[in-house]
Amino acid sequence: MKHLFLVRHAKSSWADESLCDRERPLNARGVSQLAPLGKALKAAGAFDGEVYCSNATRALATLEGALPENLLPGHWHTEGELYTFDYRRLIAWLEQLGDEPLVSVVGHNPALLELAQWLLKHPPEQLPTASFIHIRLPIKHWHQIDRGKGKLEAVMTPQDYSYAHFERKLKKKARTAGDDPARDIPKALHHQHDRLRQLERGVILGLDDEFLHQYRIAIRRSRAIAESVQEVTGDKSLAKAVKTLKRHARATGPLRDLHVFLQDLPQLCGHNSEVQAALNIWFEREAANSHKKLVKRLQSKRYQDSMEQWLNLIDSRKFHKLAGSLQHKDIRKAVEHRIKGFNKLTAELMHTSPDEDIHRLRKQLKRIRYLMELDVRTWKPRLKVLKARQQLYGQFQDLHVQIELLEQFRKTAPEVLPAALSGIIETLGERKADARKQILTLGGLDGAPL
Q1: pTM of structure
Q2: CA 394 – CA 75 distance, rounded (Å)
Q3: In CATH, what class is 170-325?
Q4: CA-to-CA distance for 47 and 35, rounded, in angstroms?
Q5: Domain 2-160 has what CATH class?
Q6: Digit-coded pLDDT (tens) for 66-124
Q7: For residue 156, what is the enclosing H or E element?
Q8: What are the CA-CA distances from residue 131 to residues 9, 54, 96, 158, 300 (Å)?
């Protein structure tokens, strides 16, 4: 069995017309593709064998920027023959290889894509820059390769493994004027539904944490809009859908908490590399297990059916009619009711109140914000104030979760650097206490639109 990775170089520059084609460098977007490409190639196993690269400047820059630090120089090679646009030359080159079980080729289109189309019965139609194809070949020797003998294992593009490249041409929110609920609300929910479905592949691949973060935002925003419509109209037909969306959002929480913790870990540990290494190993394993559970959920028939049902609901005439029944005065009344409840809870908050009380206020803030967003023009100035406050409550919650995670680790491995671990927990506790003080000084919300 042989494995072949065909890797197209990253985006190149045509700015300097005096350069010959072989000497063209990468452009800024090409450079930005390298680190995520390297992570994706490593995860796919492309560096587990021999790596061969065209001697063109753009191909070499791609390989050098994508190579993992621990790959020994003897495992990658520059080959002038790979600077070609003719797939037949690539076939001839492959046929003379030795017994390497896995080979990665960094080269150029159309040769790479046409080679894949020659090897596969159902090949991909495109191979954009910084993309790669993984092909499995049921042969013992490379000279046995033949038309249609390969099996496609994976195709991956920058839009699959990098959120920054995924979002280049996509909108986070639907373009709405904010003054016609009958039109704006279904449009916003439909947009969020489409965005959720597009983000799912990135979440499942798990190569960029930002996919999960944006997926959470989209599903929580969808739930919040539906919940707000239900609250303002008093219609109970949305209750089941809101409950389902809430369940989906909750399922993403543990993994997102671990992502945030791992991102903050270097800063938390300071210069103590030993404790950082121990925590990193343990929490990366926890994140991997949590990711497996989430992937299983997203690929389940129950999840797929629920998303189809949600789409049918927001496209229904009944929902459009319900959205159209919203009046500015009704939205304002619901906002004022929520603010009144928030201010009551805030007045009861003390330095000794349990963390759950602040967590409850944080959720109330989100509900108020999403209600206001049903009538953006009326509440726009207040929304800015609300978002700033919401960020502070979010910081408090993150610190609360990080302390809980560290306590969980300490119970599991009490012998691992107890003094250093206690110091980190103490520092986080001080930050949380400071955030609590800031929250207590804020007081209640003004319920009148500016």
Answers
A1: 0.89
A2: 46
A3: mainly alpha
A4: 14
A5: alpha beta
A6: 998 877 677 899 999 999 999 999 999 999 998 999 999 999 999 999 999 999 999 99
A7: strand 151-156
A8: 8, 16, 25, 6, 28
